[in-house]
């Protein structure tokens, strides 16, 4: 792929930044933009020096959904052949922690993108919702599944069927977001949190994320067996030796991700 047209991405102090950059259309996610996001995520995931990834919007929104103009004339066969959701699936396969910093609208595919992240920092002006019902469709990139797992069937059905916008304080109330902060400090707070995670042993973060995701999907017994294996696995890392040695020597640990 050539130079990205709809996003900007850069790395600084162990944090991989992805900025959605289609502000005039409230960062409406066309298919190329989703591919660019996935490419940047994949590159950061492979880059040893990147420990955490942070996605944010530019202009007055995070993202107001998939690009309606682009999909207005789609047919089922075109959609089947495009297989665009294979790209979306790759977002949930990223191993490193991904933080979404959400201000303004996070609607439809924009909400799905945020829900695919591991942490959501939201400004007080953030508005979440699935307006697809008003377009005669429904979410297609995990929205019904993730919202239901996150807030339960009763409330998820209400938001999905009304298509109304949820205030950030409501999203916080239902545990959909990690932190609710004033808009002017959103990016700083999200970055501060990313910097905090960047100091942690990357392999621990990786396996914690993997294990928590497993816990969402399987029964308690299976999840606990899985947890145990990942716990054992970390004892083969140098960071485990370093972390415990540093504790005994009463000094800060220097984690290297190995
Ligand atoms: C294409 C969009 C867009 C979108 C906004 N724009 N959202 N273009 N697709 N999803 C464009 C508008 O057409 C307009 O372009 C410009 O962005 C600014 O938007 P306005 O409507 O003028 O702003 P405002 O009045 O503040 O209203 C904001 C809004 C509204 C409430 C967010 O734009 C809106 O309802 N947008 C659509 C939201 C939506 O239905 N999202 C779900 C999409 S379906 P011009 O050229 O007129 O300036 C979906 C399915 C996902 O996401 C499936 C998986 C991929």
| Tally of alpha and pi helices | 12
Strand elements, count: 9
Helix content: 40-55%
Distance between the termini: 30 Å
Strand order of the largest sheet: 1-2-3-4-6-9
Radius of gyration: 19 Å
Shape type: globular
- Name the bound molecules: hexanoyl-coenzyme A
Low-confidence stretches: none
Beta-strand fraction estimate: 15-25%
Largest sheet: 6 strands, mixed
Q: On the 0-100 scale, what is the average pLDDT?
A: 97
Q: Please state the structural category.
A: alpha/beta
Order of helices and strands: EEHEHHHEEHEEHHEHEHHHH
Keywords: Lyase
Pfam families: ECH_1
Family: Belongs to the enoyl-CoA hydratase/isomerase family.
InterPro entries: ClpP/crotonase-like_dom_sf (IPR029045), Enoyl-CoA_hyd/isom_CS (IPR018376), Enoyl-CoA_hydra/iso (IPR001753), Enoyl-CoA_hydra_C (IPR014748)
